User: Fold this.
Amino acid sequence: FGEFLSFAFTGVDPQQAGQLDAEPLVAILETSTDDASVGTMCDQFSGSLPRLDATQAARACKVFVDRMRKRGDTDDDWSGRLTWLPPRLDAAQANLAWNALLEIPKAASTGEDKWTLSDSRFGALKALSSRLEPGQVKIAADAAIETIEKSTDQGRSDVAERVLQALAPRLETAQVKRAADILVANLENGHGHAAAPCLVELASRLEPPILRRSAEAMIASIKKSAKNEVVFTLAYGLVGLSARLDTATARRAWDALVVAKDKTGLTVDFAPGELKALASRSEERRVGKECRSRW
Assistant:
Protein backbone atom coordinates (compact mmCIF):
# COMPACT_ATOMS: atom_id res chain seq x y z
CA PHE A 1 0.00 0.00 0.00
CA GLY A 2 2.88 2.35 0.76
CA GLU A 3 4.31 1.71 -2.70
CA PHE A 4 0.90 2.41 -4.23
CA LEU A 5 0.72 5.72 -2.37
CA SER A 6 4.20 6.63 -3.55
CA PHE A 7 3.12 5.97 -7.14
CA ALA A 8 -0.17 7.82 -6.68
CA PHE A 9 1.33 10.94 -5.17
CA THR A 10 4.26 11.19 -7.58
CA GLY A 11 2.40 10.09 -10.72
CA VAL A 12 -0.66 12.33 -10.61
CA ASP A 13 -1.40 16.02 -10.36
CA PRO A 14 -1.05 17.30 -6.75
CA GLN A 15 -4.59 18.66 -6.85
CA GLN A 16 -5.90 15.21 -7.75
CA ALA A 17 -3.84 13.64 -4.96
CA GLY A 18 -5.36 16.13 -2.57
CA GLN A 19 -8.82 14.75 -3.37
CA LEU A 20 -8.01 11.30 -1.96
CA ASP A 21 -9.99 10.33 1.12
CA ALA A 22 -7.60 10.59 4.07
CA GLU A 23 -9.64 8.44 6.48
CA PRO A 24 -8.19 5.05 5.37
CA LEU A 25 -4.68 6.46 5.70
CA VAL A 26 -5.32 7.66 9.24
CA ALA A 27 -6.89 4.31 10.14
CA ILE A 28 -3.82 2.43 8.85
CA LEU A 29 -1.58 4.75 10.84
CA GLU A 30 -3.51 3.90 13.99
CA THR A 31 -3.70 0.12 13.53
CA SER A 32 -0.62 -1.08 11.68
CA THR A 33 2.22 -2.68 13.63
CA ASP A 34 4.62 -2.66 10.67
CA ASP A 35 6.80 0.41 11.22
CA ALA A 36 8.54 0.07 7.86
CA SER A 37 5.34 0.01 5.82
CA VAL A 38 3.75 2.77 7.85
CA GLY A 39 6.91 4.83 7.50
CA THR A 40 6.79 4.49 3.71
CA MET A 41 3.17 5.55 3.76
CA CYS A 42 3.84 8.53 6.01
CA ASP A 43 6.43 9.88 3.61
CA GLN A 44 3.57 10.34 1.13
CA PHE A 45 0.93 11.21 3.71
CA SER A 46 1.68 14.95 3.58
CA GLY A 47 -0.04 15.06 0.18
CA SER A 48 -3.34 14.41 1.95
CA LEU A 49 -2.77 17.12 4.54
CA PRO A 50 -5.26 19.58 3.01
CA ARG A 51 -7.94 16.89 3.25
CA LEU A 52 -7.51 16.22 6.98
CA ASP A 53 -10.23 17.54 9.23
CA ALA A 54 -9.43 18.62 12.80
CA THR A 55 -10.19 15.19 14.26
CA GLN A 56 -8.05 13.35 11.70
CA ALA A 57 -5.15 15.76 12.26
CA ALA A 58 -5.36 15.14 16.02
CA ARG A 59 -5.40 11.35 15.47
CA ALA A 60 -2.39 11.52 13.15
CA CYS A 61 -0.52 13.67 15.65
CA LYS A 62 -1.19 11.18 18.45
CA VAL A 63 0.13 8.32 16.30
CA PHE A 64 3.30 10.24 15.45
CA VAL A 65 3.91 11.19 19.09
CA ASP A 66 3.26 7.65 20.38
CA ARG A 67 5.59 6.07 17.80
CA MET A 68 8.23 8.72 18.43
CA ARG A 69 8.16 8.01 22.16
CA LYS A 70 8.34 4.28 21.51
CA ARG A 71 11.39 4.61 19.27
CA GLY A 72 13.09 7.09 21.60
CA ASP A 73 16.43 8.44 20.37
CA THR A 74 17.03 5.57 17.93
CA ASP A 75 15.23 7.09 14.94
CA ASP A 76 14.55 10.67 13.82
CA ASP A 77 12.01 9.73 11.16
CA TRP A 78 8.92 10.17 13.32
CA SER A 79 9.96 13.55 14.71
CA GLY A 80 10.83 14.66 11.17
CA ARG A 81 7.32 13.79 10.03
CA LEU A 82 5.89 16.22 12.57
CA THR A 83 7.30 19.17 10.63
CA TRP A 84 4.44 19.27 8.11
CA LEU A 85 1.56 18.55 10.53
CA PRO A 86 1.56 21.70 12.79
CA PRO A 87 -0.53 23.92 10.46
CA ARG A 88 -3.49 21.60 11.11
CA LEU A 89 -2.99 21.26 14.88
CA ASP A 90 -4.59 23.27 17.65
CA ALA A 91 -2.56 24.66 20.55
CA ALA A 92 -3.18 21.68 22.85
CA GLN A 93 -2.02 19.16 20.25
CA ALA A 94 1.03 21.29 19.40
CA ASN A 95 1.92 21.44 23.08
CA LEU A 96 1.60 17.64 23.37
CA ALA A 97 3.98 17.12 20.43
CA TRP A 98 6.37 19.81 21.74
CA ASN A 99 6.65 18.15 25.15
CA ALA A 100 7.16 14.73 23.57
CA LEU A 101 10.04 16.04 21.46
CA LEU A 102 11.76 17.43 24.54
CA GLU A 103 11.25 14.20 26.51
CA ILE A 104 13.48 12.26 24.09
CA PRO A 105 16.85 13.85 24.96
CA LYS A 106 15.84 13.83 28.64
CA ALA A 107 15.01 10.11 28.61
CA ALA A 108 18.15 9.26 26.66
CA SER A 109 20.45 11.26 28.91
CA THR A 110 22.86 9.14 30.93
CA GLY A 111 25.75 11.59 30.84
CA GLU A 112 26.86 14.97 29.59
CA ASP A 113 27.44 13.85 26.03
CA LYS A 114 23.97 12.30 25.73
CA TRP A 115 22.03 15.56 25.81
CA THR A 116 21.49 16.26 22.12
CA LEU A 117 18.75 17.61 19.90
CA SER A 118 19.00 16.43 16.31
CA ASP A 119 18.31 18.65 13.30
CA SER A 120 15.17 16.64 12.63
CA ARG A 121 13.75 17.28 16.11
CA PHE A 122 14.83 20.91 15.98
CA GLY A 123 12.94 21.33 12.70
CA ALA A 124 9.83 19.85 14.29
CA LEU A 125 10.14 22.17 17.30
CA LYS A 126 10.50 25.18 15.04
CA ALA A 127 7.41 24.17 13.05
CA LEU A 128 5.41 23.65 16.26
CA SER A 129 6.48 26.89 17.94
CA SER A 130 4.10 29.02 15.90
CA ARG A 131 1.14 26.93 17.09
CA LEU A 132 1.83 27.24 20.83
CA GLU A 133 -0.24 29.60 22.94
CA PRO A 134 1.61 32.69 24.29
CA GLY A 135 1.53 31.32 27.82
CA GLN A 136 3.10 28.05 26.68
CA VAL A 137 5.80 29.95 24.78
CA LYS A 138 6.63 31.98 27.87
CA ILE A 139 6.89 28.88 30.08
CA ALA A 140 9.09 27.05 27.55
CA ALA A 141 11.35 30.06 26.96
CA ASP A 142 11.78 30.82 30.67
CA ALA A 143 12.65 27.16 31.33
CA ALA A 144 15.23 27.16 28.53
CA ILE A 145 16.83 30.40 29.70
CA GLU A 146 16.97 29.16 33.30
CA THR A 147 18.62 25.93 32.14
CA ILE A 148 21.31 27.90 30.29
CA GLU A 149 21.87 30.12 33.32
CA LYS A 150 22.13 27.35 35.92
CA SER A 151 23.08 24.06 34.26
CA THR A 152 26.64 22.77 34.54
CA ASP A 153 25.89 20.14 31.87
CA GLN A 154 27.04 21.58 28.54
CA GLY A 155 24.96 19.14 26.52
CA ARG A 156 21.83 20.13 28.40
CA SER A 157 22.62 23.81 27.84
CA ASP A 158 23.08 23.17 24.11
CA VAL A 159 19.61 21.61 23.93
CA ALA A 160 18.15 24.62 25.76
CA GLU A 161 19.86 26.98 23.31
CA ARG A 162 18.32 25.14 20.34
CA VAL A 163 14.91 25.34 22.03
CA LEU A 164 15.37 29.09 22.39
CA GLN A 165 16.39 29.30 18.74
CA ALA A 166 13.11 27.61 17.75
CA LEU A 167 11.12 30.01 19.94
CA ALA A 168 13.10 33.16 19.02
CA PRO A 169 10.43 34.91 16.88
CA ARG A 170 7.91 34.66 19.71
CA LEU A 171 9.98 35.71 22.72
CA GLU A 172 8.93 38.71 24.78
CA THR A 173 11.25 41.73 24.83
CA ALA A 174 12.41 41.00 28.38
CA GLN A 175 13.14 37.38 27.44
CA VAL A 176 15.18 38.48 24.41
CA LYS A 177 17.37 40.66 26.63
CA ARG A 178 17.76 37.99 29.32
CA ALA A 179 18.55 35.30 26.74
CA ALA A 180 21.04 37.48 24.86
CA ASP A 181 22.89 38.42 28.07
CA ILE A 182 23.49 34.81 29.11
CA LEU A 183 24.26 33.59 25.57
CA VAL A 184 26.87 36.30 25.02
CA ALA A 185 28.35 35.69 28.48
CA ASN A 186 28.78 32.01 27.60
CA LEU A 187 30.52 32.93 24.36
CA GLU A 188 32.81 35.38 26.15
CA ASN A 189 33.73 32.68 28.65
CA GLY A 190 34.85 30.41 25.81
CA HIS A 191 32.08 27.83 25.83
CA GLY A 192 28.60 27.42 24.43
CA HIS A 193 29.37 27.96 20.72
CA ALA A 194 25.86 26.63 20.04
CA ALA A 195 24.70 30.04 21.26
CA ALA A 196 25.75 31.59 17.91
CA PRO A 197 22.77 30.34 15.82
CA CYS A 198 20.38 31.41 18.57
CA LEU A 199 21.86 34.92 18.62
CA VAL A 200 21.44 35.10 14.85
CA GLU A 201 17.72 34.35 15.26
CA LEU A 202 17.50 37.12 17.86
CA ALA A 203 19.70 39.60 15.92
CA SER A 204 16.89 41.78 14.57
CA ARG A 205 15.73 42.45 18.15
CA LEU A 206 19.11 43.05 19.80
CA GLU A 207 20.38 46.49 20.83
CA PRO A 208 23.64 47.61 19.15
CA PRO A 209 25.84 47.15 22.26
CA ILE A 210 24.80 43.51 22.84
CA LEU A 211 25.00 42.86 19.09
CA ARG A 212 28.59 44.16 19.06
CA ARG A 213 29.48 42.04 22.10
CA SER A 214 28.04 38.99 20.36
CA ALA A 215 30.19 39.55 17.28
CA GLU A 216 33.34 40.28 19.27
CA ALA A 217 32.86 37.12 21.34
CA MET A 218 32.48 35.03 18.17
CA ILE A 219 35.56 36.66 16.65
CA ALA A 220 37.66 35.92 19.73
CA SER A 221 36.41 32.32 19.92
CA ILE A 222 37.20 31.67 16.25
CA LYS A 223 40.78 32.79 16.75
CA LYS A 224 41.23 30.64 19.87
CA SER A 225 39.40 27.43 18.98
CA ALA A 226 41.14 24.45 17.43
CA LYS A 227 37.90 22.53 16.78
CA ASN A 228 36.58 22.70 13.23
CA GLU A 229 32.96 22.21 14.29
CA VAL A 230 33.17 25.12 16.73
CA VAL A 231 34.88 27.41 14.21
CA PHE A 232 32.36 26.51 11.53
CA THR A 233 29.36 27.27 13.77
CA LEU A 234 30.81 30.58 14.93
CA ALA A 235 31.68 31.62 11.36
CA TYR A 236 28.11 31.13 10.24
CA GLY A 237 27.00 33.05 13.31
CA LEU A 238 29.14 36.02 12.27
CA VAL A 239 27.69 35.95 8.77
CA GLY A 240 24.19 35.95 10.24
CA LEU A 241 24.97 39.08 12.29
CA SER A 242 26.89 40.91 9.55
CA ALA A 243 24.00 42.98 8.19
CA ARG A 244 23.67 44.81 11.52
CA LEU A 245 27.33 45.28 12.42
CA ASP A 246 29.08 48.64 12.37
CA THR A 247 31.95 49.09 9.91
CA ALA A 248 34.80 48.50 12.35
CA THR A 249 33.26 45.35 13.83
CA ALA A 250 32.38 44.00 10.39
CA ARG A 251 35.99 44.41 9.25
CA ARG A 252 37.18 42.38 12.23
CA ALA A 253 34.45 39.84 11.45
CA TRP A 254 35.81 39.46 7.92
CA ASP A 255 39.33 38.96 9.24
CA ALA A 256 37.93 36.26 11.57
CA LEU A 257 36.25 34.54 8.62
CA VAL A 258 39.60 34.45 6.84
CA VAL A 259 41.06 32.79 9.95
CA ALA A 260 38.15 30.31 9.89
CA LYS A 261 38.90 29.53 6.26
CA ASP A 262 42.56 28.85 7.06
CA LYS A 263 41.59 26.53 9.93
CA THR A 264 38.76 24.57 8.35
CA GLY A 265 38.82 25.15 4.61
CA LEU A 266 35.55 27.04 5.00
CA THR A 267 34.76 29.22 2.00
CA VAL A 268 34.18 32.90 2.66
CA ASP A 269 32.27 33.35 -0.60
CA PHE A 270 28.98 32.83 1.27
CA ALA A 271 29.28 36.20 3.07
CA PRO A 272 26.46 38.64 2.23
CA GLY A 273 26.98 41.77 0.18
CA GLU A 274 27.51 44.10 3.13
CA LEU A 275 30.35 41.98 4.48
CA LYS A 276 31.94 41.52 1.03
CA ALA A 277 32.00 45.28 0.52
CA LEU A 278 33.75 45.70 3.85
CA ALA A 279 36.14 42.91 2.89
CA SER A 280 37.33 44.94 -0.10
CA ARG A 281 37.97 47.90 2.20
CA SER A 282 39.86 45.62 4.55
CA GLU A 283 42.03 44.47 1.64
CA GLU A 284 42.65 48.08 0.56
CA ARG A 285 43.70 48.93 4.12
CA ARG A 286 46.08 45.95 4.21
CA VAL A 287 47.69 46.90 0.89
CA GLY A 288 48.00 50.51 2.01
CA LYS A 289 49.76 49.49 5.21
CA GLU A 290 52.13 47.23 3.27
CA CYS A 291 52.97 50.01 0.80
CA ARG A 292 53.62 52.50 3.58
CA SER A 293 55.82 50.00 5.36
CA ARG A 294 57.89 49.37 2.23
CA TRP A 295 58.18 53.12 1.53
